[in-house]
Amino acid sequence: DVKVTQSSRYLVKRTGEKVFLECVQDMDHENMFWYRQDPGLGLRLIYFSYDVKMKEKGDIPEGYSVSREKKERFSLILESASTNQTSMYLCASSTTGQSNEQFFGPGTRLTVL
Amino acid sequence: DAKTTQPNSMESNEEEPVHLPCNHSTISGTDYIHWYRQLPSQGPEYVIHGLTSNVNNRMASLAIAEDRKSSTLILHRATLRDAAVYYCILRESGNTPLVFGKGTRLSVIA
Asked: Do B42 and A96 lie within an 8 Å CB cutoff?
């Protein structure tokens, strides 16, 4: 069974903290993605990566960075968490190709106090 | 990005067929039509995709208009478990990420 796992389902952090959200996939996929989902705004793409050590900005990269040191792992970093980063964060992975599906993890609900 | 238009919400009775429409009048010849759904408290999951011909799989059928400007996702017998937000997405060339719109919230009534 293919799997994308995220390190936490729920996370509570304080304003100004550095936050790491981890995502691991076991399907040997080249591509990995980070989205956030907010009520009324839907899913928005933060960053994505086509290969190890490569990264591309999505639609809303401000306030975030990413790291992909190994093919199976894609980390989202909030350098200094703010309350407006309270959200559901979803990781996904896929193989290369226009028709290939994206597999999503269960999501991490992050609350920044 | 190519755009799609879907109704905000739809309702269906359990065990009846459901037809979820999607308009994509600006679709280009190489865009694939993808459908995903998101069940409550879960990440999105793939449902089906197609290019020109109608497609069937164990979850649903996808009917694509001859001019490709619209498509319809068909759930043959809705169950309570099918209550979700359904997203119609055009996948552009190469490796572009999925771009999600607001989708259609499907409610299934027992």
From this structure: no
Distance from CA of A59 to the nearest CA of B (A): 10
Q: Are A107 and A88 in contact (CB under 8 A)?
A: yes
Strand pairing category for A19-25 and B45-50: unpaired
Q: Which two tokens stand for residue B98?
A: 């999925």
pLDDT at A85: 98
pLDDT at site A2: 66
Query: How far, in Å, CA of B107 to CA of B43, rounded?
Result: 18
Q: From chain A, which residues contact B within 8 Å (Cβ)?
A: 4, 31, 33, 35, 42-45, 48, 50, 58, 90, 92, 96-99, 101-107
A12-21, A42-51, B1-10: which range is least confident on average? Answer: B1-10
Q: What pLDDT score was predicted for residue B93?
A: 67
